[in-house]
Automatic annotation (TrEMBL):
It is found in: Cell membrane. The keyword Membrane applies. Belongs to the TatA/E family. This is Sec-independent protein translocase protein TatA. One of its GO terms (cellular component) is TAT protein transport complex. Residues 61-83 have a biased composition (Low complexity). GO terms for biological process: protein transport by the Tat complex. Part of the twin-arginine translocation (Tat) system that transports large folded proteins containing a characteristic twin-arginine motif in their signal peptide across membranes. TatA could form the protein-conducting channel of the Tat system. Pfam families: TatA_B_E. InterPro entries: TatA/B/E (IPR003369), TatA/E (IPR006312). Keywords: Cell membrane, Membrane, Protein transport, Translocation, Transmembrane, Transmembrane helix, Transport. The keyword Cell wall biogenesis/degradation does not apply.
């Protein structure tokens, strides 16, 4: 893909001036600059957060007791089991 020619750039600038007007262009450029500055700051903070190692020691929220693990004997009955009724059904 080729870079845009000088004529194409001039046409784009002319359209922007016609849409926003010459008086509002500095305000638009200022708000875009502020937005880019905030975006770069947030990206930098996210990269810094990713580079910090996780805290050592026991992890909070993990299973600490045997009751937190699922019990395979209390699994819901399967639809193939003839002694059960399907959910929302009346049986036979």
């Amino acid at each position: 893909m080729r870079p845009p020619s000088l004529l194409q750039i001039l046409i784009i600038v002319l359209i922007i001036v016609l849409l926003f007007g010459a008086k509002r262009l500095p305000d638009v450029a200022s708000s875009i600059g502020k937005s880019l500055k905030i975006f770069k700051k947030e990206v930098t903070e996210l990269r810094e957060d990713d580079s910090t190692p996780p805290p050592s020691g026991p992890a909070s929220g993990g299973p600490t007791s045997p009751s937190a693990t699922p019990n395979p004997t209390t699994a819901p009955p399967s639809a193939d089991d003839p002694g059960t009724t399907p959910p929302g059904g009346t049986g036979r």
